[in-house]
Design a protein that fits this description.
Elements: H1 2-10, H2 23-32, H3 39-51, H4 54-68, E1 72-78, E2 81-84, H5 89-95, H6 103-117, E3 119-126, E4 132-138, E5 143-146, E6 155-160, E7 163-168, E8 178-182, H7 195-198, H8 200-218, E9 225-229, H9 240-254, E10 270-274, H10 279-282, H11 284-299, H12 314-344, E11 352-356, H13 365-376, H14 383-389, H15 399-402
Antiparallel strand pairs: 1-2, 1-11, 3-4, 3-8, 5-6, 6-7, 9-10
Length: 405
């Protein structure tokens, strides 16, 4: 534990990858609850894995913005069944969670935090009747979970600058004004594992190749080389002062992108030899694309949607968008809806269920049309059964018309 506390105070050593921190020490610290989730670690994940890596940024953005565009639906259950509510305070809350944030940007922030850290926290502000009147996302590195017995936390500590607030958790129901949404972590009971950590090595490699290419470009697009100086007839080479002066002259006259293509003019018996391998030998472009594909795999995004070169035809792009929704966004949306239902239900007296509108998702139109055609062709279903199958309520008809097609 002392090692982690030292890292917490000083930050990771210079030049060390932020993704290669000691996972065992990190997990032990989080489970014991001896300190807050490491802000320096979260900062480095964000800076190097999100702000400085275009592929990870694109993957998180395309998922969070697509998910935040799905409209909320609310269904009320009674003895007659379940029917949709057109208006309700909960729908108003989700569509306008706070005075400073609309519903779409709120969901985008919640999902982005979840993909960045594996954890997302939401604070509820309660009104006079005990129901939430505002919802605020909380940055993951500001939250500390105080472990409790039987898998339920004792409380959540939220630190913002020097202010610390404590949110208690009901030991029986697990209810709290803080909602904690987390992804599965096989080595931690309290905190989730983010796709960013799973893709850490690929992100390091992608950033390293990008840094190499930038350095190469700054050097005029040429790899490093060596200036070979043959000794004179007496077998003597250059003195230390002559070598230092020559280095300065070469750096001033030929180094940098502004001097690319300039002809080198030297006096004496000199020979220039390139020390670096050619881009063809190292195949940097393909290596960078391979790292980008691995990052996309971790987030569940097709490479072409993140701008990675490939089979970018219209048909392939349409299929990629469809599978993005089917394999990544909809399962994540189901997780969020289930967590919101479990958290918000106790605040309201009505028996309701939150849902979402699949009909508004254009990428799923082919699947929806195929399902509707199958239902329309089913002659063994009544009109109201068909309407229920596609998400519509029943209509009043006499018994003779119920079986009409």
């Amino acid at each position: 534990m002392k090692r982690f506390k030292d890292l917490w105070k000083k930050g990771l050593p210079s030049g060390r990858s932020p993704f290669n921190s000691d996972a065992n020490v990190f997990a032990e610290t989080l489970i014991s609850g001896s300190t807050y989730a490491p802000s320096n670690r979260f900062d480095r994940l964000v800076n190097e894995g999100y702000r400085q890596n275009v592929i990870a940024y694109r993957c998180i953005t395309v998922i969070s913005r697509a998910l935040s565009s799905v409209p909320w639906l609310l269904y009320k259950r009674d003895r007659h069944g379940e029917h949709e509510l057109e208006s309700h305070p909960l729908l108003t809350l989700l569509n306008s969670p706070s005075p400073r944030q609309a519903g779409s940007s709120f969901m985008e922030e919640v999902v982005s935090y979840l993909l960045l850290s594996g954890n997302s926290y939401i604070e509820a502000i309660l009104g006079g009747d005990g129901a939430p009147v505002a919802l605020f996302p909380v940055r993951p590195d500001r939250v500390r979970i105080m472990p409790g017995k039987r898998g339920v936390p004792n409380s959540y500590h939220v630190r913002i600058n020097e202010t610390v607030r404590d949110f208690t958790v009901d030991p029986m129901s697990g209810q709290s004004r803080i909602l904690h949404i987390k992804l599965f972590h096989p080595m931690n009971d309290w905190y989730g594992l983010s796709p960013m950590e799973a893709a850490s090595k690929s992100i390091d490699q992608h950033n390293a190749v990008g840094g190499h290419n930038l350095a190469l470009l700054n050097n005029g697009g040429r790899p490093s080389g060596a200036l070979m100086i043959k000794p004179n007839e007496n077998g003597l080479g250059l003195s230390e002062g002559q070598r230092s002066s020559l280095r300065k002259d070469l750096k001033r006259a030929y180094e940098g992108s502004d001097n690319a293509g300039r002809v080198m003019v030297l006096e004496g018996d000199f020979e220039w030899r390139e020390m670096g391998l050619t881009p063809k030998d190292l195949d940097f472009v393909e290596g960078k694309n391979m790292s980008a594909r691995e990052i996309c795999q971790a987030f569940g995004v097709a490479p072409m949607l993140a701008g990675v070169p490939g089979d970018a035809t219209f048909a392939n792009y349409r299929e990629a968008r469809f599978h993005l929704w089917e394999d990544t966004i909809l399962p994540l949306l189901e997780l969020l809806v289930a967590e919101f239902n479990l958290w918000l239900q106790p605040y309201y007296k009505e028996n309701f269920r939150l849902g979402y509108d699949l009909d508004g998702i254009q990428a799923l139109a082919p699947k929806r049309e195929a399902a509707w055609q199958k239902i329309a062709a089913a002659d063994f279903l009544t009109i109201n059964e068909k309407r229920q199958a596609v998400g519509y309520g029943p209509i009043d008809m006499d018994s003779s018309n119920l079986n009409s097609k």
